[in-house]
Amino acid sequence: MKDSAQHRDVKGAILDATDRLLAGNGYKKMTIDDLAAAVGIGKGSVYLHFKSKEEIVLSHIDRIIERLKARLDDIAKKKTPCDRRLREMLVERVVFRFDSVQHYTQSLNDVLSQIRPQFLERRKRHFDEEARIFASIIKEGVDRGEFIAINAKETAGAFLIATNSLLPYSLSTQDLGERAEIEKRTLKVAELLLKGLISRKG
Amino acid sequence: MKDSAQHRDVKGAILDATDRLLAGNGYKKMTIDDLAAAVGIGKGSVYLHFKSKEEIVLSHIDRIIERLKARLDDIAKKKTPCDRRLREMLVERVVFRFDSVQHYTQSLNDVLSQIRPQFLERRKRHFDEEARIFASIIKEGVDRGEFIAINAKETAGAFLIATNSLLPYSLSTQDLGERAEIEKRTLKVAELLLKGLISRKG
């Protein structure tokens, strides 16, 4: 048990260091040697946990999404009306990612253009996992009569599509500086999407 | 007059050749020599029209968007209900771009990662121009009582944001193979967006 906790700790420390190094120098200039030095372990120890630099960055992105999903689950469990929860979840999925990578400023383009094909594949899985959380609340809204009868899974997919262009990957670093503007745009899209769902009986 | 018509012809021929070369070899491997040979002019003549390879590709993308805007204008002028025109315009903005670059398959990622910063800047202008066309129809819908009272400009911006993640730049080449799926997703988002706009009096 102690071993596996240590294993997780080192893994987490490597990902924490990755975050700092990506913020500082960007992906290209980051080396496994830098990472090992930042964590205070040997280079070989890094390779015990990750096969490659690419895998480290993808795991770092995975960790951001795991944390986001925990936040979405927390909002989903609230007792507020379903449309309010969905609005909050839409903003969270955009703003949480924004906050997670905002400090990269100059190097985000760089990171993602290096690992674009692998990143897009991984992103598809992340979206599927997010969609499940959104679909559960849309279904709840339909079941409660808060929303019109609508296919929850399809609608969840459309909700994500409609806000995906606001995620950091699609933004220039200049746009990344404007958190309030990004949040405002997300709310505007959320408002339009939700307006059509509200049951007219309500 | 003949000179300027010739000038336009050569420029158009260079962009046509760019399209073919991007489809075949991708951006990195495309040279000004290749382009000149494909058009049947000297290398110096290419530089009379364009400063750099980068500028050629950006002009090529500009031309795609000019053609798209002409199509959007045609739909905007129809006499059908405003929601139907907007639905058609949303599908057109996605599918027209898709068709324009679909034959690049392997090399689209490549092209765009090379010129990403310049491309994002140019894209912002393209979106503003598109938004004006959408806003005019949203305003018409509001004026006619087909839609609820809503800010046309803001709503047009949200319509573009909500479909921007379906544009080729955000898709993997694998996704680019699935035209019917992309169209279906666009229609689903359009349906949700428009559902909320329709006046309940109607």
Terminal-residue CA separation of chain A: 53 Å
How many separate helices of chain A?
Answer: 10
Fraction in helix of chain A: over 70%
Radius of gyration of chain A, taken over Cα atoms and rounded to an integer in Å: 19 Å
Greatest chain-chain contact: A-B, 31 and 31 residues
Average pLDDT score of chain A: 89
> What sort of overall outline of chain A do the alpha carbons produce when their principal axes are compared?
elongated
Domains of chain A (count): 2
Quick one: CATH class of the largest domain in chain A? Answer: Mainly Alpha
CATH superfamily of the largest domain in chain A: Tetracycline Repressor, domain 2
Tell me which CATH architecture of the largest domain in chain A applies here.
Answer: Orthogonal Bundle
Sheet having the most strands of chain A: none
Low-confidence stretches of chain A: none
Beta content of chain A comes to under 5%
Q: Provide the CATH topology of the largest domain in chain A.
A: Tetracycline Repressor, domain 2
Based on DSSP secondary structure assignment, what is the total number of beta strands of chain A?
0
Oligomeric nature of the chains: homodimer
Structural class of chain A: mainly alpha
Detailed description of the structure:
Two copies of one chain form a homodimer. Chain A has 202 residues and is mostly helical. Chain A has two domains: 1-50, Arc Repressor Mutant, subunit A, CATH 1.10.10.60; 52-195, Tetracycline Repressor, domain 2. The first copy, chain A, has ten helices and no strands. The longest helix of chain A is centred in the middle third of the chain and has 28 residues, at 116-143. Chain A is elongated, with a radius of gyration of 19 Å. Chain A binds chain B through residues 109, 113, 116-117, 120-121, 154-155, 157-159, 161-166, 169-170, 172, 185, 188-189, 191-197, 200, and chain B through 109, 113, 116-117, 120-121, 154-155, 157-159, 161-166, 169-170, 172, 185, 188-189, 191-197, 200.
